[in-house]
Design goal:
Elements (H helix, E strand, L loop, with lengths): L2 H15 L12 E13 L2 E11 L6 E9 L2 E10 L5 E11 L2 E9 L4 H10 L3 E2 L3 E11 L6 E14 L6 E7 L2 E8 L6 E17 L2 E17 L12 E22 L5
Antiparallel strand pairs: 1-4, 1-14, 2-3, 3-6, 4-5, 5-8, 6-7, 8-9, 9-12, 10-11, 12-13, 13-14
Length: 266
């Protein structure tokens, strides 16, 4: 084969033999509008503790030490996100964070009242379930949005809606007519709405056309009412205030890509 003919053959097959040339390089699809369902673990945290609460069963007055903890639980979230560009987007989410409680009680001074002892024993280890939901919105920043793995970070702000009082504390003791309820702390509200924040980071992985897996670690900062000091007597609404608790969560989710920008050759 002559040199000139060989050169023409090389020029013809070169674009196919070298796939990395600029004009044949391709980009993958990019998710723009995403709906997510995810679930995972939400950690617990101590909420409040009182060293000596007077309870008027007899004279002298008995006292007990009380405490309450936010229980660890499983959480589930439904979210939507829209990315008008490559990196910055905005999300809306409803996250079931739980906010169930577990109580502690210990008699610190007893006049010998069996009613007090039974009441404290019924409080010790008692659990209360709840269905608190944090509804939040905020920005999401992602990188490598056209790659198989795309890391991201988010910051959310919103409200947490709870159906369980974090103040009300009750025990039970046996009487000749059956069990009677001791209201140690009362509450004017069964449900409350408090501020909520969240800061998280994670990544998405494209597993099929139009679908992604999502993994995320998050610090959920929720407002909860806490007992701040012991009132001089029981059966009243105790002094209280809003405290902000950090509840760490780890979730795994499934994304449905409702809108995407197709990859292109360049």
């Amino acid at each position: 084969m002559r040199v000139r003919e060989f050169a023409w053959v090389v020029l013809l097959i070169a674009p196919h033999a070298v796939p990395s040339t600029g004009w044949t390089q391709a980009t993958k699809d990019q998710a723009r509008l995403v709906f997510t369902v995810s679930g995972g673990f939400v950690g617990g945290r101590d909420l409040w503790a009182i060293d000596a609460q007077p309870i008027q069963f007899t004279d002298p007055i008995d006292t007990v030490a009380l405490g309450r903890r936010i229980r660890s639980t499983l959480g589930i979230a439904f979210a939507g996100a829209y990315f008008p560009g490559d990196n910055l987007g905005f999300g809306l989410e409803g996250f079931l964070v739980g906010l169930g409680f577990e109580d502690r009680c210990r008699v610190t001074f007893s006049s010998g009242s069996t009613d007090l002892i039974e009441s404290c024993q019924s409080i010790q280890g008692a659990t209360k379930s709840a269905t608190a939901v944090a509804v939040t919105v905020g920005p999401i920043f992602r990188v490598n949005s056209r790659s198989l793995i795309s890391p991201y970070a988010r910051a959310n702000v919103g409200l947490v809606f709870s159906n369980q009082s974090s103040l009300r504390t009750t025990g039970r003791y046996l009487t000749p007519d059956g069990f009677s309820t001791l209201i140690v702390y009362d509450d004017d509200h069964e449900t409350r709405v408090e501020p909520a924040l969240a800061f998280g980071f994670g990544f998405t992985a494209a597993v099929a056309r139009g679908y992604q897996l999502r993994w995320e670690v998050r610090d959920n900062i929720v407002g909860v009412q806490e007992v701040t000091s012991a009132p001089p007597q029981a059966r009243v609404v105790p002094p209280h205030d809003v405290t902000y608790k950090h509840l760490l969560s780890v979730t795994i989710g499934f994304d449905v890509v409702l809108e995407r920008r197709r990859g292109r050759r360049y």
